[in-house]
Amino acid sequence: MATGTAGGGAADPTGRHRAANLDNWDERVAIHTASRFYDVEGWLADRPGPRVREVEALGDLSGLDLVHLQCHFGLDTLAWAGAGASVTGLDFSPSAVEAARGLAERAGLADRATFVCADVYDAAEVLAPITFDVVYVSLGALCWLPSVGRWADQVAALARPGGRLYLHESHPVAWSLAHDSPTLEYSYFEEPEPYVDDSGETYTDGGVGLAHRLTYEWNHGIGEVVTALVDRGMRIDRLTEHDWTVLQQFPWLVERSPGKWGAPADCARLPLSYTLVASRMP
Q: Phi first, then psi: what are they for 104, rounded to 5°?
């Protein structure tokens, strides 16, 4: 899962949204690193590597350079380092970056893993002049951004000519659904004003009663994401919509197979996540 960041600008002129999200995500780090959901100790013992679906999409990345935007505490980033890639993880949470660096040391991967604390909207500037073979973005990233266009600016600037983007993200239909039933309640599209959540919860076990309760999120339609990338010189190579997601995002979802949650049998199939692979045109 990815860490939230809402950069400043027209959608957040005072930085209030970003500051609230940062406080929330800083607090989540200790909860997430200790959770059964992430099972850090099990990961260190087993070193499972990247997910099969990611390897099928990207192939062998041995010797290639990968940047993971909104990397949280770096578990997915380090999976690619363990598979032979040279990785850079970027996140706006100092607590997350500190945890990622510690995890890299424990895993014996610090020689090929760098973690940088910065806002995703500043990624290309902060990492310049370095560019990458793969820009990697994992589930739960785009919802924290007020502008998918500004995100696409960074992707296009970070990808080398011929470089690729891998994005696995929650489907905008899923973000539009009511919490308690499979009915539409929220906008499918990117809106100027964010969705405000004050539940004080996170998605892992142990994640109830956060002191920093308030967060701000935005939805982005599939067409908005695709158009933002194409307008910046990216070619869409694959776009696959999935009727599953990796956690119980809603109480009415059922676990169809280990780690894959979908709608119950008496409900129509719904798109809950999607995978997009794109290439930067030479």
A: -60, -40
